[in-house]
Amino acid sequence: MNGLTFDIAHLLAGSLVLISFMMLYQDRLFALINVFALHAVVLALSVAWQAYIQDAHHLYITAAIALVFKAIVIPVGLHRIIQRLGIHRDIETAVGIGPTMLAGIGLVTLSMVLMLRVTPEADPLAREDLAFALSIILLGLLVMVTRRNAVSQVVGFMSLENGLVLAATGAKGMPLVVEISVAFSILIAFIVIGVFLFRIRERFDSVDIGALDDYRGERR
Amino acid sequence: MISQLAVQGAQMLVVLLLAPLLIGFVRKVKARLVRRQGPSVIQPYRDLVRLMRKEVVLADNASWLFRVTPYLIFAATWVAAALVPTFATGLEFSWTADLIVIVALLGSARFFQALAGMDVGTSFGGIGASREVMIASLAEPAMLLIVFSLALVAGATQLSTVAAFMGSPEVGLRVSLGMSLIALVMVAIAENARIPVDNPATHLELTMVHEAMILEYSGRHLAMIELATFLKLLLYMSLIACVFLPWGLYGASAGPKALAVGAAAYLCKLAVLAIVLAVFETAVAKMRVFRVPDFLGAALMLALLGTLLLFVSRSL
Amino acid sequence: MNSTVALLLCGPAAFLASAIMAAAASRLAAATRLVYGATLAISAVLLVTAASHLAGNLGEASATLPLGLPWTGARFRLDGLSAFFLVVVNFGGTITSLYGLGYGRHESQPHRVLPFYPAFLAGMNLVVLANDAFSFLLSWEFMSLASWALVMAHHRDEANRRAGYIYLVMASFGTMALLLAFGLLAGPAGTYAFDAMRTAHPDRFAAGAVLVLMLLGAGSKAGLVPLHAWLPLAHPAAPSHVSALMSGIMTKVAIYGFIRVVFDLLGEPAWWSGVAVLLIGGVTAVLGILHALMEKDLKRLLAYSTIENIGVIFASLGLALAFKANAMPSAAALAFTAALFHVLNHSFFKSLLFFGAGAVLSATGERDMEKLGGLIHRLPVTSFVFLIGCVSISALPPFNGFASEWLVFQAILRSPELPQWGLKVIVPAVGGMLALSAALAAACFVKTFGITFLGRARSAAVERAHEVDRWSLAAMAVLAAFCLLAGILPGFVIDSLSTVTLPLVGERMPVQMAQPWLSIVPIAESRSSYNGLLVLVFITVSASLAAFFIHRFASHALRRGIAWGCGFPDAVPAAQYTAVSFAQPIRRVFGGFAFRSRETVDMPAPGALEPARLKVEMHDVAWEVFYQPITGAIDFATERLNHLQFLTIRRYLTLVFLYLVILLLVLALWP
């Protein structure tokens, strides 16, 4: 395997981290969902590239799933939900963009250092890919933590799952079943959370999860 | 030695003569994109000549600093632009200043420009200067971090060495370089006062930054400052071209054919970058001044991330 | 006894003699001129002696005087490091005395300044020469007390008294930390001589404790965050030339103390000590300059900017420690040289800027920038040299501030070769912080020069201002010239520093003066090089070319008119941009986390006649988190102990008796 194929795989994984950062930077819901769609497209590309270089045809299916569901179906669905809820003009970050990005950098550094330290004997680029995957997972968690709105928490959760898929495809010989199950579990989670959104909406007339704190009497 | 000196001299003249043309080209493309006829591409030359012929109107309390500044700004920007490889590497005086010095030279130009904006004591000058230093206080560290990334990849801050290294096949596609490129483009947009950070065509009080600082200038002084602004755009485009599109650069001892290739390649790169800039500026809207820190903060973070990635993965 | 050391020791003695003379004669009319003339001569002699020692690479020399503790005597030693710092101290002393010859005449109470000024110089010289812990601490305390007396020179001002009190408390705290550090270094044998400490190697725990104590002791004197809060109060309170000495020189003596202990006496450093120093340095640089940006008092702004520069120096020293710990001597030499070069540069431009602030103060009677403006028309020479100081401190080429910061950045670029993960992650972050602080420094000094010297006069005091006396102008011009010289001939400074770096980090930077065209090449020419001289020449030539071209071909017509104001009649000068409004965009960007700043707009209802109000609330986090709890605790304790002063004699006797019994009990129960 020559350097260029590795380089492209590496670049795609790196762009995923970059797009995760773009998600941290967005403060409008529509923009956030568009960036998430881009995230999914790049993930699909990355998985397809892995399928090509590992000569593992079943991975193409995973790529197709990522492309169809995560890049098209779910974003369109979320767009609809937002319009139905009438919250498309909300600006909603619980923490400012600057500190969030700083925290993101800290997390990426942490995952790099951690991954490079615990896997000293593995292939260098695979190690970095693993580190990228871990950073995408952590950044997804960060999106979930720093957002007030349930919709953007869903997006954060799905970008986290993208990180999982990236890690799974990076490792050779992962069976297809696992990926399909992961993808479907995400779809189910999406539906559940979608339903949940409407429940919150009905109860509290808002999708700001701060409303739940009010209900529990924990609001300061 | 002689040929290198000739290349260096040619470079100084080329950047000076090409800079207004580049601006004219960008303006023309922007006009065509919105289906206007637009002024001719050589209009900036005519503007400069017209400004030279006009009398200077100085405010009553303008000091000597106000009158010296245009020449200082022009000189600093010209020296900086002359040290960035355009069509050839191996400039005779490239060892005078590395990339950090070039950034700092542009910083000096800005320092004096902001001071000149405050000299007359109008609110316009103050608002422009205070916003300009705010933008610079984020753009400069971002630029320095980009320099760090490049230096780590190429093992040098010397721009000729960096350009030569980036042109060699041992550079693969690297994630950190991609981050640096995006950050560099963002910094270049902010430094050149282009949309979405600032609008070079506006004279509306609330949105001006660069134009507010130079509002009191007229005649030959304004011509110098405008020319320096043109040079700065050319400088950043040449920088992006020589680091990230390093193909066709004329080497130190290659023949005249290579020289022609280098010149043609340089013009093509500039044209491509100018069209990209025009399309980008037409497609986006100017942002509020207090969104600019977020924009530049993102550039700073990207540059820092790129540097960190390189630092951490260097030991592999 | 070596003759050079003897000569150098005569200096402090002569300073002390002139201090006594000054105390006796301070009410005479000629006293000012006599005292400053004497200190000028003494400092100049010491400067030449130390500089020739440094340039001649004469190695070390030591001397022991039968003073101090009876069984040790007072030891003194001259090596490369102390020679370099003697140059810094005595150059500052010479130039400040020159300035004082003119500035001192405006002093309303010369008897409160003149006796302490030579004593302060003597103290700083002795600290740098001391070769045992006892004389070091004694000189250090002497230096602190003399400068404290100078801070209290204008003690009728309530703010100055408060500054003096806080300074005294912090100075004692610093000395206590140093005392403990030397106690640890002396070990169980109690060897107070530096020579003995150098050969004894403390264990890892003790070495770490010494590093922390030195950061507390020397760092509080130098102004490291979070121990900086006293510095912007105390430095500006003194007369301006003393402010220059305190900010430009005394902080450097504190850095000398840190280098002497951590690089020389402590032996091989641990790698994490580099991390600690780097981080503290980076944070100090950013917070210092942010505070300076928010400031509107000219001298306090300069004091805050000192904190920033101290941060840069410490960050560079931290890099040197990290390289030294990892056996990379050439990189360590680069970082260490950068730190020392910045020490020298900062002593140049900070003295220059404080002199300029003093000139403004004596010409207008104002330190508040909001009441100044337009001084470039009234004080043409002062404003020109002040501008050079501003350009130098903003790290712009071809002046000296840029040369040293460029070296720091080159040292940072060597650090990917470091093996530890912690360092790999910290160093680029600190590099980002230093770049940020350099850009903010440029913003800060645009503000300083723009508000103070440009625009229109904001008060009547400015209209009456006249250029200051020739002595002051000469001192400032010399400093401005040195700022330029050190910027265009950095190779000369770097080569002179080789005798300092070689014994301390085991390597020196490559010889620079042999490079063609006098450029500096820290590692290799293909890697990085900088030539300040050529940059200056190029800028001059292109500016002259442009000017020539314009004058040859363009229109010469020039008309004066009123400034463009959008059709509104000329606004009053008070409506210009002020220092606070200039800093507003930056306060909005960084204020949230640096100062927890908050803006509240109080907008009256439409039709109401009261003015709208904008209130800005800012907090000094270090002050609130560190100082207030400590001062609160001390106040509480003293309040309680105060009751002891109002007891009856019987109770006092009871107390003494109880104490005796407790001591006896302890003795009896001690195993």
Automatic annotation (TrEMBL), chain A:
The chain crosses the membrane at residues 6-25, 32-53, 59-82, 94-118, 130-147, 154-171, 177-198. It is found in: Cell membrane. It comes from the Bacteria. It is a multi-pass membrane protein. Keywords: Cell membrane, Membrane, Transmembrane, Transmembrane helix. Its main location: membrane. GO terms for cellular component: plasma membrane. InterPro entries: HyfE-like (IPR038730). PANTHER family: HYDROGENASE-4 COMPONENT E. This is Hydrogenase-4 component E. It comes from Mesorhizobium atlanticum.
